Amino acid sequence: MGRSPCCAKEGLNRGAWTATEDKILTDYIKVHGEGRWRNLPKKAGLKRCGKSCRLRWLNYLRPDIKRGNISHDEEELIVRLHKLLGNRWSLIAGRLPGRTDNEIKNYWNTNLGKKVHDHHKKKEKMKKSKASLVMTPKMEITRPENESNVVKSKAMKCSKVFFGPQTQNIEPIDTTTVTAAGQSMVQNTSNFTPIPSGSPNGASSSTDLDHDQEDHGSDFMMNVNMGEFCLSDLLNADFIMPK
DNA sequence: AATGACCACAACCGCACTTTA
DNA sequence: CTAAAGTGCGGTTGTGGTCAT
To answer: What is the phi/psi pair of residue A101, to 5°?
Structure first.
């Protein structure tokens, strides 16, 4: 089915936004509210594509945007949420008040991604040196680098919950609701089992990026009620899938 | 001082999902 | 029910700033 392009490219401004454009957009949204992005530029008198306006507003002009460095706590939270959710930046951003998906994505790509990657490499090295000392055949189950136990991003908004065979005794989770903003919500989060730090299976320290050992549930699809997590929970807990 | 490499981040693009007529 | 419009999301690119040579 043919689709008209989101906006005619001719005669539209591109690139960095000027202060005047910002002001026009902000004023317009203050009066008319968000939404109707496609028509917004025309009505507001902006020579911009609607998408561009939306992005500018969401990532930069919104009054509740928190600017400045990502704190250590936020960083830890991002790492954990990424481990859990993969590249679903909007969901991750939803747990970090004032932060945008774009900001987190950028931060990940420039900082955390590298950190985690390096960390992974270190671990691989250590594993290898250990393995060369004591080598048993079944230890050679390897997984591609960076593979995580997460639902693939862009896979679609999960509205169904699927557990692998080992989870059959789990009570069915309530159906999910998807809000207009695309945030998926699950009413029941009890299927996430937070393991307190220091427990046999848990990571020893919340500052440690090393959570590889929790590669449980690699074949599950589930929705997460992120609305019920809070920062402290996430910082003090690791996630495993129920068995 | 000039310039090339690298980094950070804003903005763009295309696809997929949702809503509407 | 279906097609088209509207919107959101994640990946990628472009650009300005900083650092190293």
So the answer is: -60, -40
